[in-house]
Every structure is written in structure tokens, then in C-alpha cells.
Specification:
heterodimer; A: mainly alpha; two-stranded antiparallel ribbon; about 75% helix; B: mainly alpha; 19 helices; about 80% helix
């Protein structure tokens, strides 16, 4: 198949899968089979693209000219390739997990769930491969809209409130800030195409660069930079598989990915660092890292704690972009993959605990590790990866981020990274430790019928926790892609 | 035959109206209206193709050459609007049969179709004629028939709404005709193009500008420019569904067309931008409409009324595009004229269908309707997204051009205001969507099903068009851009 055909099929496969899923709603087994087959086919296509990109090719595809000579067009470069690889790879794992979770909890409207999920993945592919800001924006909004039914899946008042906040914050930031930023970029430079070295150099000066950067940084609300982070904790009303893939991987990573992409291909790192406008973004991202870790410590609800941990970890990637140094970009890019593996494991475990024991609060988990040893062991590994300790992949991205900070002479950022790791230890590690070594509260004795979550969930947890470890020993492919990004 | 197409465009619906009036049964009249409505797009399509190929068509009614005789003049802009109006009619008529049968008493049905065709005649006539007084005649034809259309429903409040519109509409028409009278006394001609060339030598004297003031105020009443919109919410709310759809999709759009004609063709950009605060006034009023009417829309419990206020807000976008006074902005305004017609008609069709099923358009009665009428509500969601301006929908295209036009002028604040007001539409569209999908149905809604195929199909066609024109902009933005540069090039 031609390389442009591969790109189109990466988008069309999940979209087509969504239609088939809708058609087979009467027989759940066929329906889930289609989800898995679509996932496998998508991964196959994405891997083909990966091989092409590794070999130095840059596949492109163009669909239609929409406004003022701007096309809906796609181009695969290493940064987007990595994002697509992470999202499509984890989709399969997540689908396996979903089957266990959705059936284990007897969730209603499962067809709608799988359909929206597939559309969300299609939009994610669109974001990953977009060739210009216009295409990116199109799929960015589609991702917001297609995940709204997933967030409100429960359908009760709480879910509706969460969904309302989710939609309002994401739509209003993107329409109020991101869209004007894109149109302004077009007005200033006459193009919105992602180009090596940026398109704004020499066309905009100090204040304009600062304003544009602010519009992008806060307009891409999915990156959850404070103060536009509050949609993420609110989105936790969604079923856990949604929180796992979308709010730890696809949606939030679409945000930080877009920021990386804008910094590298719209501003250009040299132009940005020479303008000096990246300084304030560094401090805001640094503040987000620390503040949200502190908030995470106060949360007793497991998913809420993980959500704030995500907010904090996303800002690592924004930090990497704001450093505007080559090592910072490498670190930020690698963190997309490393954090994804770690955080999805943690969310899977949270969902497994909910499915098996119906517990959501951390203070209720004491002693649970003895009946669910596998889940909590996986949780431990995931936590290590988020902290950035060996033997997990999280170490590498933090390593390069710290190097990038040194490269930019930002010692204070190195200090932020160190402090944050300490905070991560403080809010993540006690959870598995208490589960294994704590004694259950008296009033709620661990009922004997609690056992591990359904097999499908355990398989998924096993895969992702293993992935965290594998990425420690073999970070090569991730590093290679990250270092292949052409910066200038 | 081909050279008489411009006349046919107006005469055919007029003849149809006459036949309809004598039909003993609504269904027969409906069949005539349907037949006429389906021939119309063929004629306007041929005209558009001809204009795109060979340029302006000038047709002399009765063989009398202008400026003495009446000239029908089809240029790129009028061909575009003719196309819009006639296609809306063609899509609406299949929908109309059941809705009219339900909402209008059997005795009145033939009159309804008669008035519909008369209104169509008026609107097409305004668009096609090149004679200022002839415009007034067609304006009255369309207005008078509109009053009847609004009043024909079973809802007695429609009578009051029609009366209110009658008073305001007559004031508007009077102001317009005073303006034309002034221009006639100054230039001695009624042909629009002729007036334009005479005005160039006369220059922007006080009487010329006073005439402009009368004309613009009169037309602004018809197009419901804030704060002259007071007739619109009542008229849209209490009129029969089919009448509302037709008016929302065509009537205000033709009024905007007339505004474009007067400002650009007759007066020319130079006159209207230099020395008059016209652009400033329009920008202020448009922005007020975008925000004021959207905010009011957020608090409406009757969805028809909510959409009516939304229309006032959306008309603000169109007039804003005119007021930006550059090619990009004007392209945005003209494409929004088209795009808004499609999406608002789709939304009103959905509400008309829901009314057909459950006999109410109140948001409280729409609870849970999303699961009972899945396709119908899907159309609402798509068209609603288009109103919001989500990328991938028609509404996004026009907003892109509007913001981009504002930024080209260096008006960053205006660009931000445009996007800020679209967030308000998220609120009012979102209210309906939430009610429809997240509440449990009660009462009539419980046993509702999707609307009948003859109503559903036209609705889905329009909803699909909202997405289609979000990607393929050859028919919308490209033609709008041509029309914009034609208008900005001044009168020819």
C-alpha cells in the first residue's frame, strides 16, 4: 500500500470500525471482536508507517482544500509517529481491559461506549498526523466532542455536571484562544503548515510572540496547564477505561503533543528561546508540576489523586517544550510514551479495584493487597515509573528533561523536577504499601469473596506494567524517534 | 426559452400561487407548490451556471430597455441568492405536506400554499430585479404574504405576532420607499445601476446620504438587525413550523441581499465608508446582536423561540461581515448567509418534527427525546454544532473568514469577540442536547418515534449539508469570495 494510503487507513480504520460496532450491537461478542480486530489492524498500519518513518521517509496525504488555500492534509513526522504509536498500541490493551471492566460492572449503553471510543481514536490519529494547524484543530475539536458521551456515560447528575465542565472548558479555550491564535498565525505568516524551524521567525516580534504563545499554551486546554486544568479531575466521572486511555493517554497527550508541535514547528525552538518569551511558560509549567502534586496529596479518592498526578506529569512535557532546547524536546517527547505506560497501569489498577472490591477511596484500601496481590504489584510498578525510578521507563524521560534544563541553564527547573519526584513518592507509594502491609479498618472487614478483577482486566494490567519495565531496558525506539525530530 | 429564464423565475411561482388559491383541497395545492418548488432550482441553477460562464445577465421586461423599462439583472451575487432561496423551497416542500396538514386547518391549507408561493415570488423578485421601485413592489408582495403565513396557524398568538410584524414591516417598507423617492428626485431614475452611475457624478451630498439613512433603516427592520428585531422572535415562535423554516432560511437572507445591493452596488464602498459612520454603527449593532440575542437565547424555554433569538445573533455575524468592509470579511458574511440558512432551517425542521410528534416545542417536554427520535435529534446535534462553529461544519467556514477578515484589518479585539460569542451558542444548544439525551422521557415524548420519512429526509439532507459545506467550500465560500470582490469592485 502506498504511504498516503496508509495514513488515510489509519484514520479510516477506526472510523469504519465504529460503524461496524454500531451495526453489531445485538451480539456483544461480535462487537467486541470487531473492536479488537480494528485495534490490531490499526496497530499494523501504524507500525508500517513507523517503519517508513524510521527509514527516513515522511509520508504525506492531502484530502481537500477548505479555506483560503488551506488543505486538510496529513504528514507523518517522528513526533506524531510516536504519539500515534502510543495511542494505537494502548488502544488494543485498553479494549481488552474495557471488555472485562464494562461486563464486570454491568455498565449500560456499551455499544455507544465502544463507538465513541473508536471515533476518539480516529480523531487522535488525525491529530497525530496533521500537517497543519487547521487539520490539527479540526480533529482536536472532534476528539473533544466524541469523548463527551464517554465522560457522561453514567448519565446521572454528577456525570452531567462533569461533562458540562469538560465540554465548556475544552470548547471555550479552544474556540476563544486556540482558534484566534491559529488565524493570527495565518494572518502573520501566511501559512499554518508545520515546518521545520518554525514559520514565525522574522515575522513576529517580542510582544506578539508572547501573546501567541499564551494563546496556544492556554488555548490547548487538553494540556491541562493551570489554571485550565479543572476539566481533567471533573472528567473522572467517566468509566475507568475512559479515564485510563483518554485522560491519561489520548486526550491529554493530544494536548501536550499539540504544544510540542506548535513550539517545534510553528515557533521553532531557536526563535522561541532567543525571543525569551518561553521563560514565563517555564515558570507556569513548573508551578503546575508542584502545585498539582501538592493537591494530589490531599485527595483520598484514588482516581482524583491520579487525575492531579496526570496534571502534574503533563506539565513535565510542557516544561520540555518551554525549555526550547534539543534535549528538552527529546525528554518531553519521550515522556509522552513513558508517562502513558505508567499512568494507564495505575488507572487500570484503580478500575480493577473498583470492579473487584467496589472501593474508590484510598483510606479503604488497607490490607486489600493481600487479596489482590497482582493488581497492587502492578500498581507499584506503575508508581515507580511515574516517580521515575529504575527499573522503569519513567527514569529516562526525566533524565533527558533534567539534561535539557541544564542545557538551558535552568537550575531551578532541575530542582522542580527533583522536588516533584519526592512528592510523587509521597502520594503514590503509600497506596500499594498500605494495601500490602496495612491492617483493614475494623468496621469493614475484608469480605472473603473479594478476589482479583476479571481475567481480561488482569491481562491488560500485566501488559502495561510489563511495558513500564521493558521501556527501562529498551528505550531505544522511543529515544530514536524523539531524537529524529528535526528542530532546525 | 433560455433568455426568458429570469422572467420565468418570478412568473412561475406567481402563477402557481394563483392556481393554489383555487384548489379545493390542501393536498392539491401542496402538489402544485411542490412541483413549482422543484422546478425553481433548475432555473436558478441554469442562471448561476450562465452567470459563472458569461457574466451578468440583463433581461428587459416587456422588451423595454433600461433605464426606462424594468430590468432583471442577474449577477454572481443575485444568482447565488436565487439558488439559495429556490433550493430551500425545494427541500422544504416535501417536508411541508404532513406538517401543514397537522398545524393548519383544512380550509386554510390551499391559502397557506398560495401564500408560500407568493412569498417565494416576492423574495425571488427582490433578488432578481434591477429596478428600485420594483424591489419595493416585491418587498410588499413577500411581506404581505408573510403576515398571512404567520397568522395561518392554529396558535392564536400567531395573529398578534403577525399584527406586530405588519406594523413594523410597514414602517420598514415606508422608510424604504421614502429613500427611493429621495433618490428618484435626485437622480431622476429608478434603475439601480443607473442610480449608481448618476450618484458618482453627484457625490455624497446631504440628500443622498439622507436617502441612504432611510433605505438602510427600512431594510434593517426587514432583516431584523438588532435592535430592530423585536418582531422576529414572536413571528418565528407562533408561525406554523413550515412558515418559520421558510422565513428563517430565506426571508432575512434576501433582506441582507438587498442591504448588500444598496450599500455596494448603488452607493459603492467609497461613499459608504468615507465620512459616514455606517461601518462603525453596523459593527456596534452586530456585536450587540451577537451577544445580546445569544444571552437571551440561553434563557428561553421554548426551543422555537430560542432558535429565533439565535437567528438574531447569527444575523449579527452576517452584518458584521459586511461592516468589516474587506474582501475576507465580506466573504465570511456572504457565506454565513448561505450556511446559516441551511443550519437554521435544519434546526427548525427538527423542532417542527418534534412538534409534529409530541405537540410541544418546550425544552421540558423534550426530555429524553434523543433516545426516542434518534435520527431527528442527530440532525439537531449536527446543525447545532454548525451554529456553534465547530470545525468540520459549515458554520466554522464562515467564522474562519469573519475572524480572519477582522484580523486582516488589525482588529484583534473584534476577532476575539466573534469567537467569544460562539461560546454562548454552546450554552443554548447544549441545554437542548442535555435535556434530550440525559433526562428520562415523560408524557408524549415517551412513545414518540422518529418523524415520518417525508419530513425526516429533508431534515437529514440539510444536516448532511452542514457537514458537506464544512469541507467542500466551492459552492459557498468560493462563490461568496467572487461575489465579494465583485461588490467591492464597485458598481458596473
Amino acid at each position: 500500500m502506498s504511504s498516503s494510503g496508509l495514513i488515510i487507513s489509519a484514520l479510516a480504520l477506526p472510523a469504519f470500525g465504529a460503524c461496524l460496532i454500531a451495526l453489531t450491537r445485538r451480539s456483544p461478542n461480535v462487537r467486541e471482536g470487531i473492536t479488537l480486530i480494528t485495534g490490531a489492524a490499526l496497530l499494523f498500519v501504524v507500525v508500517q508507517l513507523f517503519l517508513a518513518v524510521s527509514a527516513g521517509e515522511r509520508p504525506e496525504a492531502s484530502l481537500i482544500t477548505v479555506v483560503q488555500g488551506i488543505d486538510i492534509a496529513f504528514a507523518v513526522e517522528p513526533l506524531g509517529m510516536l504519539f500515534a504509536l502510543v495511542a494505537s498500541g494502548l488502544w488494543i490493551v485498553n479494549s481488552i481491559y474495557s471488555i472485562g471492566y464494562m461486563r464486570g460492572n454491568d455498565e449500560p449503553r456499551q455499544t455507544q461506549f465502544y463507538v465513541c471510543f473508536a471515533i476518539a481514536i480516529a480523531s487522535t490519529m488525525g491529530i497525530a498526523f496533521s500537517k497543519n494547524l487547521f487539520t490539527l484543530f479540526l480533529f482536536y475539536e472532534l476528539l473533544t466532542l466524541s469523548t463527551y458521551p464517554l465522560v457522561t456515560h453514567k448519565g446521572d447528575e454528577n456525570a452531567r455536571r462533569g461533562g458540562r465542565i469538560y465540554l465548556l472548558i475544552l470548547l471555550s479555550t479552544s474556540m476563544l484562544l486556540l482558534l484566534p491564535a491559529i488565524i493570527a498565525t495565518w494572518a502573520i505568516s501566511g501559512t499554518v503548515e508545520f515546518s521545520v524551524g518554525g514559520i514565525l521567525a522574522g515575522k513576529a516580534d517580542g510582544a506578539v510572540v508572547g501573546i501567541l504563545l499564551a494563546l496556544y499554551a492556554f488555548g490547548i486546554g487538553k494540556a491541562a496547564l493551570m489554571p485550565v486544568h479543572s476539566w481533567l479531575p471533573n472528567a473522572m466521572v467517566a468509566p475507568t477505561p475512559v479515564s485510563a486511555l483518554l485522560h491519561a493517554v489520548a486526550v491529554v497527550k493530544a494536548g501536550v503533543f499539540s504544544i510540542l508541535k506548535v513550539v517545534v514547528y510553528i515557533f521553532g525552538i531557536d526563535f522561541l528561546s532567543s525571543s525569551g518569551q518561553n521563560q514565563w511558560l517555564l515558570y507556569i509549567a513548573g508551578a503546575t508540576v508542584i502545585l498539582s502534586s501538592l493537591i494530589a496529596m490531599t485527595k483520598d479518592n484514588l482516581k482524583a489523586r491520579l487525575a492531579y498526578s496526570t496534571v502534574s506529569q503533563l506539565s513535565y512535557i510542557v516544561l520540555g517544550a518551554a525549555l526550547a532546547t534539543s534535549l528538552g524536546i527529546v525528554g518531553g517527547t519521550m515522556h509522552i510514551a513513558m508517562h502513558a505506560a505508567g499512568k494507564i497501569t495505575l488507572f487500570f489498577c484503580a478500575g480493577a479495584i473498583y470492579t473487584a472490591a467496589h472501593k474508590t477511596e484510598i483510606s479503604d484500601l488497607s490490607g486489600l493487597g493481600r487479596v489482590m496481590p497482582f493488581t497492587f504489584a502492578a500498581f507499584f510498578i506503575g508508581a515507580l515509573s511515574i516517580i521515575g525510578l529504575p527499573p522503569t521507563g519513567g527514569l529516562w524521560s526525566k533524565w533527558y528533561l533534567a539534561l535539557g534544563a541544564l542545557e538551558a541553564d535552568q537550575v531551578i527547573i532541575v530542582a522542580v523536577l527533583m522536588l516533584s519526584s519526592l512528592l510523587n513518592i509521597a502520594y503514590l507509594l503509600p497506596i500499594p504499601l498500605k494495601a500490602f502491609f496495612g491492617t483493614p479498618k475494623k468496621k469493614q472487614k475484608t469480605s472473603p469473596e473479594i478476589k482479583e478483577a476479571p481475567l481480561a482486566c488482569l491481562i491488560a494490567i500485566g501488559i502495561t506494567s510489563l511495558l513500564c519495565v521493558v521501556l527501562f531496558f529498551f528505550p531505544g525506539p522511543v529515544y530514536d524517534l524523539a531524537s529524529m525530530i528535526k528542530l532546525r | 426559452m433560455m433568455q426568458h429564464l429570469p422572467a420565468l423565475q418570478v412568473v412561475l411561482p406567481l402563477l402557481g400561487a394563483v392556481f393554489c388559491a383555487f384548489m379545493p383541497r390542501g393536498a392539491w395545492a401542496g402538489a402544485i407548490a411542490l412541483a413549482v418548488s422543484w422546478i425553481m432550482p433548475v432555473i436558478s441553477g441554469l442562471l448561476l451556471a450562465q452567470v459563472l460562464q458569461t457574466g451578468v445577465i440583463s433581461y428587459h421586461v416587456g422588451g423595454w430597455p433600461p433605464p426606462m423599462g424594468i430590468e432583471y439583472r442577474v449577477d454572481i451575487l443575485s444568482a447565488f441568492i436565487l439558488m439559495l432561496v429556490s433550493v430551500m423551497g425545494a427541500i422544504l416542500m416535501p417536508y411541508a405536506r404532513l406538517s401543514v396538514a397537522k398545524e393548519i386547518s383544512a380550509r386554510n391549507q390551499p391559502y397557506f400554499y398560495c401564500m408560500y408561493l407568493l412569498c417565494m415570488t416576492g423574495l425571488l423578485g427582490i433578488t432578481i430585479t434591477g429596478d428600485a421601485f420594483n424591489v419595493f413592489v416585491f418587498l410588499e408582495v413577500s411581506s404581505l404574504s408573510t403576515y398571512v403565513l404567520i397568522a395561518l396557524g392554529r396558535d392564536r398568538r400567531g395573529l398578534l405576532a403577525a399584527y406586530q410584524y405588519l406594523v413594523i414591516g410597514s414602517i420598514g417598507a415606508t422608510l424604504y420607499v421614502i429613500g427611493i423617492g429621495l433618490l428618484y428626485s435626485i437622480t431622476g431614475t429608478l434603475n439601480l445601476v443607473d442610480i449608481a452611475s448618476k450618484l458618482q457624478t453627484i457625490g455624497a451630498t446631504a440628500p443622498v446620504l439622507i436617502a441612504l439613512g432611510f433605505l438602510i433603516t427600512g431594510i434593517s427592520l426587514k432583516l431584523a438587525l438588532f435592535p430592530l428585531h423585536v418582531w422576529l422572535p414572536n413571528a418565528y415562535t407562533y408561525a406554523p413550523s413550515v412558515a418559520t423554516i421558510f422565513l428563517a432560511g430565506t426571508a432575512t437572507k434576501v433582506a441582507v441581499y438587498l442591504l448588500l445591493r444598496i450599500i455596494f452596488t448603488v452607493y459603492g464602498v467609497g461613499t459608504t465608508s468615507d465620512g459616514t459612520p455606517l461601518s462603525d454603527i453596523f459593527i456596534v449593532l452586530s456585536v450587540l446582536a451577537m451577544f445580546g440575542a445569544s444571552i437571551v437565547a440561553c434563557f428561553q424555554d421554548n426551543v422555537k423561540r430560542m432558535l429565533a433569538y439565535s437567528s438574531v445573533a447569527q444575523i449579527g455575524y452576517i452584518t458584521l461581515g459586511i461592516a468589516i468592509l474587506n474582501k475576507t470579511g465580506l466573504t465570511g458574511g456572504i457565506s454565513h448567509l448561505f450556511n446559516h440558512a441551511i443550519m437554521k432551517a435544519a434546526l427548525f425542521m427538527v423542532i417542527g418534527g418534534i412538534f409534529y410528534r409530541i405537540g410541544s416545542a418546550n425544552i421540558a417536554n423534550l426530555a429524553g427525546i434523543g433516545r426516542r427520535m434518534p435520527l431527528t435529534m442527530a440532525a439537531f446535534v449536527v446543525a447545532g454544532l454548525s451554529i456553534i462553529g465547530a470545525p468540520g461544519t459549515a458554520g466554522f467556514i464562515s467564522k474562519w473568514y469573519l475572524v480572519s477578515g477582522a484580523m486582516e484589518k488589525g482588529w484583534w479585539w473584534l476577532g476575539l469577540l466573534i469567537v467569544a460569542s460562539s461560546v454562548l451558542s454552546v450554552v443554548y444548544i447544549g441545554r437542548v442536547v442535555e435535556a434530550a439525551y440525559f433526562q428520562t422521557p415523560n408524557g408524549e415524548a415517551e412513545k414518540a418515534t422518529d418523524m415520518p420519512a417525508s419530513m425526516l429526509l429533508p431534515t437529514l439532507v440539510l444536516a448532511a449539508a452542514c457537514i458537506w459545506f464544512g469541507f467542500d467550500t466551492r459552492l459557498t465560500a468560493d462563490i461568496a469570495a467572487q461575489a465579494a470582490s465583485y461588490l467591492l469592485g464597485g458598481a458596473q
